[in-house]
Structures are given as C-alpha cells and as structure tokens.
Fold this protein.
Amino acid sequence: MPELPEVETVRRGLAPAMEGAEIVRLELRRGDLRFPFPLEFAASVAGRRIVSLSRRAKYLMIDLDNGMTVIAHLGMSGSFRIEADIAAVTPGGFHHPRSKNEAHDHVIFHLTRNGEQSRIVYNDPRRFGFMDIVVRSEMASHPFFRDLGPEPTGNALSAPDLAKRFAGKAQPLKSALLDQKMIAGLGNIYVCEALWRAHLSPLRASGTLVTKAGKPREKLVLLVASIREVIADAIAAGGSSLRDHIQTDGSLGYFQHSFSVYDQEGAACRTPGCSGTVERIVQAGRSTFYCATCQK
C-alpha cells in the first residue's frame, strides 16, 4: 500500500494541475471502489473551484471553495494521472501521457482553468482505494481522522510526546510505530528503515525507550530523528513506488534503490563496522527486515 511519502509525492504532482481549477464535471464510471461513492457525489462537486490540495497521514484531500473537502485514499494500487488538451498546453504546461490501462480508469475530474481543459484520472485495478466528501470544518472529528497521531513531518512529532505514548508499554517497537494512533502515516517500509537507522530492534518493547520519570531516552530521541529523516529522504526521492505505485507523471520513484533493510533479506548490513546480515521475520502477519547484530 502506498505510504505517506508516496501520497505526498502524488499531492505535489497534482497540485500545479488542480489548484485554482474549476471542476466542470466529475465522471464516475462505476458506483463504488472499496466503498460506494457518496450520494450525489458528482453533483456536489460540479462547478466548484479547487482551493488547495493537502494531505493527512495517507489521505489526499482536495479542498473546495464551498468548505467541502474530497478525501481520496489510494488503497493498494490507486494512482492519478494528468491529461491536458495538447492544443491548450503552453510551454511548461502540465501534460503527461497515459500510464495505466484505461479499463481501470474509474474516476475522472474534468477541469478548466484560464480556458484550458484538463482531466485528472484516477486509476485503480484492484479497487481498494476510496473517495468521500466531508465538511472541512468537521474533519477533525471524522472517523478517518479523529484518532490519528501526529504527522511524522511536522513539529508535533517529538521525543517527549512519543515518550508519553510509549510509557509502560510492552508492545514491540515495530507494531507500536505502525499504530496510526501513535504516529500518522507510517507504514511497514519506512518503519523498518527508521528502526535500522536508529539501531533499534523491531522486537524491543517500546516502553524501554522511556525513563521511569517518563522522559525519552537518547535512543528515542534518535528514533524520532530517524523517522523524520527517512520520510524526508523518501519524499525527496519521489516515493518508493513498490509494485503498482507510480507518480502522477507515470514515472517510477526511486527511493527503493536506497533501501537499507527493507526487502534486503540475506544482504550484508550497511551499518559501518557491522558484520551482520539482514534478516526477515514476521510480526503480526507482516514482514519485518532488520539486522539483529546492530539493532538492539
């Protein structure tokens, strides 16, 4: 499933084409994705101007000029592509070719801006993605968002805050970090990578990173820094683009070529001076990759 860096990459790719544009028509080519579309979904967005694109955790949010927000989740295989009218494109315009099988084009935003027409096409072969529309001012209490933890890219994530969440917990670090109530948007790939950078075992009890007084230990401070760094590196690299994920222009991201432990079972650990090899274990039904020699 696309993780936070992939969704942020999509947001940044779509923003120049969508922000400020008017939705002439929303074309729904089926009645549902993972869930049915909201009632009157197409009618409720027709004629609205897109104010901005934002992101919360793994959700893409399209903010409209009437206080409503379209929420999109990519699921396992969802992607967007941008199609512009070639005759209307000026130098430097946002024009990208098709990148997916048209049979899986399920949602199309028909847009206009300054007399130029474009289409934003949502393609999803497995149909695990979904879309909804909500009142922006009520988003914090929406079931999708009300229990989410802090973003790993903002100032809200800090070692003292995480110490409060970890205090007294025997839960393994890997599963604690995957808990969206702890930190929003972290997934399997980047948790493995962050734990390797912080030299922490995914099996270690999360509460051991907190002192009896409830203060973060040095290892927890390093973990927070490692989370920030790995997410920032992945966003800069355009996301990891595993399997079905592509950027909005159809090109693949390349952070996957920088993975230090994820999917590197049997490879030599990249930690300088470490003689260990990357191992694979299963935690809660998901693969975990780490070096037992240097991750303690």
